[in-house]
Amino acid sequence: MLTVKELGKAIKDAVETGYVTKLVDIERRGQGTLQIRISTAGRANFYYRHVTSEGKRDDYPLGTYDPAGSKGLTLEDARDRYGELAAIYRSGTKDIRDHLQNQERAKAAGLRAEMDAQDRQEAGSLMALLAAYVDYLKAGGKASAREVENTLKNHVILLEDLVGTRANALTPKDLRAIFDRLQDRGLTRALGKTRAALHSAYNLAARAEFDSTIPMTFRTFKVTINPVSVLPTFSALSKPGDRVLTRRELQHLLQTLRGMKTMPARSMLTAIYLGGQRPTQLLRVTEADIDLDRGIITLRDGKGRRTHPRLHVLPLVDPVKGWVQELVAVNGSAPSIFSSDGKTAPHPSTLSGLVHAICGGAYRLGDIRRTAETELAALGVTKDVRAQILSHELSGVQARHYDRHQYLEEKTEALNHWIAYLEGLMAGNVIPLRGVGT
């Protein structure tokens, strides 16, 4: 074994002679060798030489020599390291380099796992996730924002223990408690709405790491899987309604609305006269959406996953044009031409309450739109024109990308027939009209 003095002299000789020097400090049979290589610049490096399982010699670097031990290994440090590797070699592990690299990878993976676990531990609660989701809908101008907020408030947020838990720690079994509660209470319609809201919130959080269009806030929840995905959709309990108002019911509704002077009544009547428009879209109409010179009104259809709402243009036919002109004069600077106070836009629930008060619960707000489409079909308005009037999603590449025709002529003809039918219904002398839009 070398002494520190001998090693120092060897380093000096290598510099003076200009020859690379190789020394052996320890050589034990079956345990490998501790070697030292000295460059002409006087730099000494330690190596553990051994024979691998394939019979090849491998010089595994241990470090650079530093007598002080501050920037490298002392001679004793190198011998200690040799002893550690020799013990591993004696145990039967012949591929020292692979063994140590695997150890480093495992250590790094363990460290990453600890950091990930810490991140998950510090991630936001379900309550925070749902709040972020509602804010996201509001920021995007989604008409469903308020309804989603109420759904979550009424059926999820009141479960304090659940919503106080980290969103990424909840399992499908945990979330099932929400739906069991709704099922027990017979709230079948709420099942689908609640699931849809939770699924969308989790979906945003799970995609946020890879989708730069999603607000950074959602990344803080560290969600990697959507626990709602495996839960049933409850579609069997949310069948589309088939209730259609009778002509007598429609007549009573129209006559009652015409006799009322409130903004909710005027908006409801306008929705019906325009062919059964969605209240959520009509109630957001402002003066900027009205062109009285051209006689058109523009609704914004933000239904579904659209990033930008689809413009839905309708002709203003009499008497609707006169009504709208009066509304603009009153609410020109309001957030809705149907505002009751000039400061806030009305909510569709106001119209739901109005309809319930008129019919005593015999039918619902959504049934009126279905009735309008049914009656339009009975009047002979073709399916394509009905789709244009009611802003149904059109299918096909051409409809989505190339068909920019607004069908104003066809819509005008159909709405004139429709309004004539409604006026006749109220007067009690209905004459069905056929062939509109053919």
From TrEMBL:
<keyword id="KW-0233">DNA recombination</keyword>
<keyword id="KW-0229">DNA integration</keyword>
<dbReference type="InterPro" id="IPR011010">
    <property type="entry name" value="DNA_brk_join_enz"/>
</dbReference>
<dbReference type="GO" id="GO:0015074">
    <property type="term" value="P:DNA integration"/>
</dbReference>
<keyword id="KW-0238">DNA-binding</keyword>
<dbReference type="GO" id="GO:0003677">
    <property type="term" value="F:DNA binding"/>
</dbReference>
<dbReference type="InterPro" id="IPR038488">
    <property type="entry name" value="Integrase_DNA-bd_sf"/>
</dbReference>
<dbReference type="Pfam" id="PF00589">
    <property type="entry name" value="Phage_integrase"/>
</dbReference>
<dbReference type="InterPro" id="IPR050808">
    <property type="entry name" value="Phage_Integrase"/>
</dbReference>
<feature type="domain" description="Core-binding (CB)">
    <location>
        <begin position="124"/>
        <end position="206"/>
    </location>
</feature>
<comment type="similarity">
    <text>Belongs to the 'phage' integrase family.</text>
</comment>
<dbReference type="InterPro" id="IPR013762">
    <property type="entry name" value="Integrase-like_cat_sf"/>
</dbReference>
<protein>
    <submittedName>
        <fullName>Integrase</fullName>
    </submittedName>
</protein>
<feature type="domain" description="Tyr recombinase">
    <location>
        <begin position="240"/>
        <end position="416"/>
    </location>
</feature>
<dbReference type="InterPro" id="IPR002104">
    <property type="entry name" value="Integrase_catalytic"/>
</dbReference>
<dbReference type="InterPro" id="IPR010998">
    <property type="entry name" value="Integrase_recombinase_N"/>
</dbReference>
<dbReference type="GO" id="GO:0006310">
    <property type="term" value="P:DNA recombination"/>
</dbReference>
<dbReference type="InterPro" id="IPR044068">
    <property type="entry name" value="CB"/>
</dbReference>
